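Any chance you could type out a protein's amino acid sequence plus the matching backbone structure tokens because I've never seen that pairing?

——
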Amino acid sequence: MPKKFPITEALWVSVGKNKMQLLFFIIFLLLCPFLGLFLREFNNIYQMRMAQRPDYKDWPLYSDLWMALGSSLVMTGFLYFCQFAFTGYMLKLVSDRYKENERVERAERMVKSLFKGIYFTISVGFCYFIAKDSYYFPASLGGSGDVEESFRDTPYFDKSSTPYIKEYFMLQLGYHFHSLIIHVTGKIRNDFMEMLLHHTITVMLVSLAYLMNYLPMSLLILYSHDISDAFVSYARFLVDTDMKKLTMVVSVCLIVSWFYTRLVIFPFELIRISCYTNPMMHEMYGIGILGAMVHVLVVLHIYWFILLLKMGCKFAKTSTPEDTQQSLSSSK
């Protein structure tokens, strides 16, 4: 494919030879028109909500998103600095089974993975600190509240129950916007389409949920995902090293946390309450498209969990860890 059309090339590399990537591409295309229809009416709904309760002073503002943009730029700049400063050190940790240019690429990914792991660890700690005592943070995620209460007073959520929730969402949105930018501007890999779908859905969900003030449930969804994302990042950091025992321990933590948070808590507790038993559903504009996107995430989670199990079995048999979900050898 012509090099002057990088998006076309990316789609061909990712979709042209992989049926699962083609499926994710079709899902992406199917979501776009429905999302477009919702976005066309979004501002009218947003303005109507503000007008309905002029006494409510905590309604999210478009201008808040500048904070997310700022955090995104800071993270992107800091990541590039870390890659410049620490790639040389990471080269010493890369396994001897990788040679020459591949060692450099593995070292660069190790820096990126460690950066992500630290971010998700901080994010999980920050979220737990601000929300653990709230009325909606459930015992299944370490709190003492009731997730059934997540939609109390929707959409005029009382933010006093969760201090710093605005800052938390702007940090999260900034990170996911940063991830989308890094993905579409980075090297083309075998997971391009599935990760494009994931990053796009996440950015849209966080943005729309914040501006529509659907904060408690959105916080729980982000928190539950970040727990396993931290282990994903640390596993990717270790997979290219010779620290096999530590890699195995982290991989087991990853599989267990992924199954619990993404395949049990997320669909059977958070999605069930949000999309099926939610008593305030009639008050939630956009619940159709938002619900569709979270269901697509479940499909991605199941697909990735199968890959995790396959990688774990291969590791157990060969004692050689390998990240087949994001194959560096397939980059262009």
In short: DSSP finds nine helices and no strands in the chain. The longest helix spans residues 19-52.
